[in-house]
User: Which sequence fits this backbone?
Protein backbone atom coordinates (compact mmCIF):
# COMPACT_ATOMS: atom_id res chain seq x y z
CA UNK A 1 0.00 0.00 0.00
CA UNK A 2 1.47 3.40 -0.94
CA UNK A 3 1.41 6.48 1.31
CA UNK A 4 -1.78 7.88 -0.22
CA UNK A 5 -3.56 4.56 0.30
CA UNK A 6 -2.30 4.40 3.89
CA UNK A 7 -3.79 7.82 4.56
CA UNK A 8 -7.07 7.08 2.78
CA UNK A 9 -7.68 3.56 4.09
CA UNK A 10 -6.09 3.64 7.56
CA UNK A 11 -5.40 7.09 9.00
CA UNK A 12 -8.40 9.09 7.72
CA UNK A 13 -10.95 6.51 8.96
CA UNK A 14 -9.19 6.26 12.34
CA UNK A 15 -9.31 10.04 12.78
CA UNK A 16 -12.93 10.19 11.58
CA UNK A 17 -14.02 7.60 14.14
CA UNK A 18 -12.15 9.36 16.94
CA UNK A 19 -13.09 12.46 18.89
CA UNK A 20 -10.99 14.76 16.66
CA UNK A 21 -13.04 17.39 14.84
CA UNK A 22 -12.27 18.68 11.35
CA UNK A 23 -11.20 22.00 12.89
CA UNK A 24 -8.54 20.15 14.91
CA UNK A 25 -7.09 18.15 12.01
CA UNK A 26 -4.71 19.91 9.63
CA UNK A 27 -3.50 17.88 6.65
CA UNK A 28 -0.33 18.59 4.68
CA UNK A 29 0.66 21.15 7.31
CA UNK A 30 3.64 23.32 6.30
CA UNK A 31 5.75 24.01 9.37
CA UNK A 32 8.46 25.98 7.55
CA UNK A 33 8.24 28.28 4.56
CA UNK A 34 11.46 26.79 3.20
CA UNK A 35 15.06 27.74 3.76
CA UNK A 36 16.17 31.00 2.10
CA UNK A 37 19.21 30.58 -0.13
CA UNK A 38 21.30 33.62 -1.07
CA UNK A 39 23.85 33.35 -3.90
CA UNK A 40 25.32 36.75 -4.62
CA UNK A 41 22.43 38.96 -5.73
CA UNK A 42 20.15 35.97 -6.36
CA UNK A 43 17.77 34.85 -3.63
CA UNK A 44 15.58 31.74 -3.71
CA UNK A 45 13.68 29.57 -1.29
CA UNK A 46 13.96 25.81 -0.91
CA UNK A 47 10.89 23.60 -0.71
CA UNK A 48 8.78 24.03 2.43
CA UNK A 49 8.73 21.26 5.02
CA UNK A 50 5.46 19.67 6.03
CA UNK A 51 3.88 16.89 8.04
CA UNK A 52 0.99 14.75 6.87
CA UNK A 53 -1.26 15.60 9.83
CA UNK A 54 -1.08 18.14 12.63
CA UNK A 55 -3.65 17.71 15.40
CA UNK A 56 -4.47 20.77 17.48
CA UNK A 57 -6.28 20.96 20.81
CA UNK A 58 -7.41 24.52 20.06
CA UNK A 59 -6.25 26.82 17.24
CA UNK A 60 -2.50 27.46 17.42
CA UNK A 61 -1.98 24.78 20.11
CA UNK A 62 -0.65 21.70 18.27
CA UNK A 63 -0.43 18.56 20.37
CA UNK A 64 0.21 15.72 17.91
CA UNK A 65 1.87 15.05 14.57
CA UNK A 66 1.03 12.06 12.36
CA UNK A 67 3.36 11.05 9.55
CA UNK A 68 2.03 8.54 7.00
CA UNK A 69 4.31 6.03 5.27
CA UNK A 70 3.73 3.29 2.75
CA UNK A 71 3.50 -0.25 4.09
CA UNK A 72 7.01 -1.06 2.82
CA UNK A 73 8.47 1.10 5.61
CA UNK A 74 8.71 0.23 9.28
CA UNK A 75 6.70 2.13 11.89
CA UNK A 76 9.79 4.11 12.89
CA UNK A 77 10.66 5.21 9.34
CA UNK A 78 9.02 8.62 9.74
CA UNK A 79 10.58 9.46 13.08
CA UNK A 80 13.22 11.81 11.62
CA UNK A 81 10.46 13.86 9.97
CA UNK A 82 8.47 13.94 13.20
CA UNK A 83 11.42 15.05 15.33
CA UNK A 84 12.30 17.79 12.85
CA UNK A 85 8.69 18.98 12.84
CA UNK A 86 8.27 18.89 16.61
CA UNK A 87 11.24 21.17 17.14
CA UNK A 88 10.08 23.63 14.47
CA UNK A 89 6.33 23.90 15.11
Assistant:
Amino acid sequence: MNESDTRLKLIDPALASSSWTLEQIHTEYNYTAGEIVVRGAMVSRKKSKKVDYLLSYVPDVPIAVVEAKDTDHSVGAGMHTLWRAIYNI
